[in-house]
Design goal:
The protein is of the alpha/beta class and 473 residues long. The protein contains 14 helices and 16 strands. The chain folds into three domains: 3-63, Arc Repressor Mutant, subunit A (Orthogonal Bundle), CATH 1.10.10; 81-359, 3-Layer(aba) Sandwich (Rossmann fold); 378-471, OB fold (Dihydrolipoamide Acetyltransferase, E2P), CATH 2.40.50. It is globular, with a radius of gyration of 25 Å.
Length: 473
């Protein structure tokens, strides 16, 4: 297109946007050469994020909403069919209609096995085209569900603006990217999305995000997290409202240093969302990184492991993660699994993840300062073993009991030096909030018996018939 034509369309849009809805059937008359209204519409779609415009159902464009992004928090019960079809189109283009069978199916399954084995051994994975395709089949659905859950929760807390600028570091094949695109579009917002991804996974991501509609701009930076020139990007395009590290920090040589550098790319009230798998190594590793940048660095923890007590920081293992219901098995996973015997080896529908939300403005999801005269900090647990005490605690797990006889929940208050587990020995109406509260909820626990568990090297907070548990917010 003639650059002059684009410039004139932009100038007319900028002039008229505050006057009345922009109608391509009108604007084309003001442009030299009078390009077809369809050309005007396409330019407005391509420039929508920069011009802060939203296309309405009647084909006109209006100023995008301002203020927080408004969406309902919801869990994902299935991977959207349009995204699954897009993945299968990629596979068909590369391997043919019968991509899950024969040599191509064997190669994809072998690469998935290799990725899983390397992951368990904590070894580096090289993502060539085959690995990226296998990863998309096996991991993209559950990563999409995880990202949707975590990002929607941020929006529910009013932390994301309607005109959202995001940097996705180690974007992979696009789990967070697709979740963002769907959530922002459904909420009537605009998304300026930037991915940092050096591997062949970027090819999958770009293909799945096309064709881009007028609700988003997509830029893929094919560089490593360490090499990406964050300062230049911020200088040219502005700081980011949200920086995402999705399942990538555990793969970096110095994750705390990298994360600290990316904090400089946030707007003053922006957030970093770090996601990791729920296994012990990566989940506890995330807490170590979190402590390095929050307790000994420039950030503060917004959620879920809020530091309730001023000038205190935790030193427990804190194997903590969120858990949601499994998603429906995607058809593409069944296609890959059936030729291998249908054992479920290539089915991955678990929605479990560790996460940390970090900020630089000191804001916390739980804004409360405990009173020592009313509650005991977990840091002092050694002094009140065998006593009954009152605690303010954040619920940091689902039921961890092996047989369900005595429900068991990880607790934290940001001061604990050793893990604390609430053990429910005598359920009652007075303590039922222990079980019904959600992950990350604040609990007021009154008159609990604290005991040392020598086998687990942890403290048990015994919740019995004399204990009251209430949601504190």
């Amino acid at each position: 297109m003639n650059p002059e034509t684009r410039r004139q369309i932009r100038e007319n849009a900028q002039y008229l946007r505050s006057v009345r809805p922009l109608d391509p059937e009108e604007i084309y008359e003001y442009v030299e050469g009078q390009p077809h209204p369809a050309v005007v519409r396409q330019v407005l779609r391509e420039e929508a994020v920069d011009l802060a415009l939203i296309e309405r159902e009647d084909g006109t464009f209006v100023p995008a909403p301002e203020g927080p992004l408004s969406m309902a928090v919801h869990s994902v019960d299935r991977f959207p069919s349009e995204h699954e079809h897009a993945v299968e189109e990629l596979l068909i283009d590369s391997y043919g209609e019968q991509w899950a069978e024969g040599d191509s199916g064997d190669r994809l399954r072998e690469r998935i096995r290799d990725i899983k084995e390397r992951y368990l051994r904590q070894e580096h994975v090289e993502y060539d085209e085959c690995a990226a395709h296998g990863y998309a089949v096996y991991h993209l659905p559950d990563y999409y569900a995880v990202a949707t859950d975590a990002i929607a929760a941020l929006a529910a807390d009013g932390l994301l603006p309607s005109q959202l600028r995001v940097l996705d570091v180690g974007a992979g094949v696009g789990g967070p990217a697709l979740a963002l695109a769907d959530l922002v579009a459904d909420a009537g917002g605009l998304l300026d999305y930037h991915a940092v991804e050096p591997s062949a996974a970027a090819d999958v991501l770009e293909a799945l995000l096309e064709p881009a509609d007028g609700s988003r701009d997509v830029t893929v930076h094919r560089e490593t997290a360490e090499a990406f020139d964050l300062a230049s990007e911020v200088e040219s395009g502005g700081p980011f409202d949200l920086v995402i590290f999705g399942n990538v920090l555990n793969e970096l040589d110095d994750p705390a240093a990298v994360l600290t550098r990316y904090l400089d790319g946030l707007v003053a009230d922006g957030s970093v969302l770090a996601l990791e798998p729920a296994d012990r190594n990566t989940a506890t590793g995330l807490r170590e990184i979190e402590r390095a940048v929050a307790d000994d660095g420039p950030a503060s923890v917004y959620a879920p492991t809020v530091r309730l007590w001023p000038h205190q920081s935790p030193n427990s293992e804190s194997w903590s993660f969120e858990k949601r219901p499994d998603i429906e098995v995607p058809a593409m996973q069944r296609r890959l699994d059936d030729p291998a015997g249908g054992t479920g080896e290539f089915v991955n529908v678990d929605v479990q993840y560790a996460y940390s939300v970090l900020r630089t403005d000191g804001r916390q999801a739980i804004d409360i300062e405990p009173d020592r005269s009313a509650h005991a900090p977990m840091a002092d647990a050694e002094s009140y073993v065998t006593d009954r005490v009152n605690l303010l605690a954040i619920k940091l797990s689902y039921d961890l009991s092996a047989d369900g006889s005595n429900p068991l929940y990880l607790l934290g208050d940001g001061s604990q030096k050793t893990d604390h587990f609430a053990v429910l020995t005598d359920p009652s109406l007075l303590n039922e909030d222990l079980g019904t509260a959600g992950y990350g909820d604040l609990l007021s626990i009154q008159n609990a018996l604290v005991l040392w568990n020598d086998d687990e090297q942890a403290y048990n907070v015994v919740v019995d018939g004399e204990t009251t548990v209430d949601r504190a917010r």
